[in-house]
Amino acid sequence: MANLNLKGCGTALVTPFRNGMVDYDAFAALVDRQVAAGIDFLVPLGTTGETPCLSDDEKIEILHIAREHSGGRPVVAGVGTNSLSGTVANMSLLAGHGADAFLVVVPYYNKPPQEGMFQYFKAVAEASAKPVILYNVPGRTGANMTASTALRLAELDNIVAIKEASSNRGQIMEILQGRPEDFAVLSGNDDETLDLMENGADGVISVASNITPELVRDMVHAVSDGRTSFARELHDTLMPLFRNCFVESNPIPAKAALAAMGLISNELRLPLVPASDHAYALMEETVRGLGLI
User: Fold this and answer.
1) 280 is catalytic
2) Closest of 37, 53, 38, 46 to residue 14, by C-alpha
3) Residue 224 and residue 279: Cα distance in Å, rounded?
4) Using CA atoms, how far apart are residues 92 and 5, in angstroms rounded to an integer?
5) Residues in Cβ contact with 85 at an 8 Å cutoff, skipping those fewer than 6 apart
6) Closest by CA position to 220, among listed 4, 67, 70, 41
7) Which of the residues 108, 120, 135, 280 is marked catalytic?
8) Which among 59, 108, 130, 163 is annotated as catalytic?
9) What is the pLDDT of residue 5?
10) Average pLDDT per run of 10 along the chain, which is 293 residues long?
11) pTM for this one?
12) Structural domains of the chain, ranges and CATH numbers in brackets
């Protein structure tokens, strides 16, 4: 676990579909594009990958492709559900197929109390031989993991990081100030990455880097290297993309952008639907403004 580097820019990969089926060739090409751009690590099978709508066989094949095309970069597989048995089953399903670590979201819909979250993640960690990354995104789950709970969990051996998407700056600062030295804090919101990294965060798991991995990577590396002015310039350039990627539910806008760039078919699985005409036009304008089409 000590050799698992989860710093820098990781991409929460979309899952492309064509005619209702996973487009594995397009997915492999997307991963190759990420690797060629110098992305630091890959995150398939997360929320951005529409994972609740994937079959077990599709999950395994997507993870295989991510591993085979990773160029040796860490591969973090999303496995979280809203039940312990479901999450452990996902870990068992994917453990032998190339994941270096597991991303586990706070259980959604149940709205567990803090002690329930702690006991849940403790049980997940005990069931895994691989490192576990906490994922706090209360806007989707309906429940927020407090800093106190995150710091309790950070003391457990194979809980190695948190992806924080609460947008609660005070809470995230508390985690940054109280964390163990080897516990990574990753931004879960692209537009907050610069600020959090300037205050000690280690990187981002990014949606926007699906679209422009080079620019997001460059921003993250610039702030890591202390090139603050350049990082701020890139942040300002990327802000329209960061903002517009969430004009409709993720990954609808990101897939619209990738489709406008000719990289995937603009397909999603229900209950998600393709971008509205307004959102598609906005994403097309956004990627054109970045010189991507």
Assistant:
1) no
2) 46
3) 33
4) 23
5) none
6) 41
7) 135
8) 163
9) 85
10) 80 98 98 98 98 98 98 97 98 96 98 98 97 98 98 97 98 98 97 98 98 98 97 98 98 98 98 98 98 96
11) 0.97
12) 8-229 (3.20.20.70)
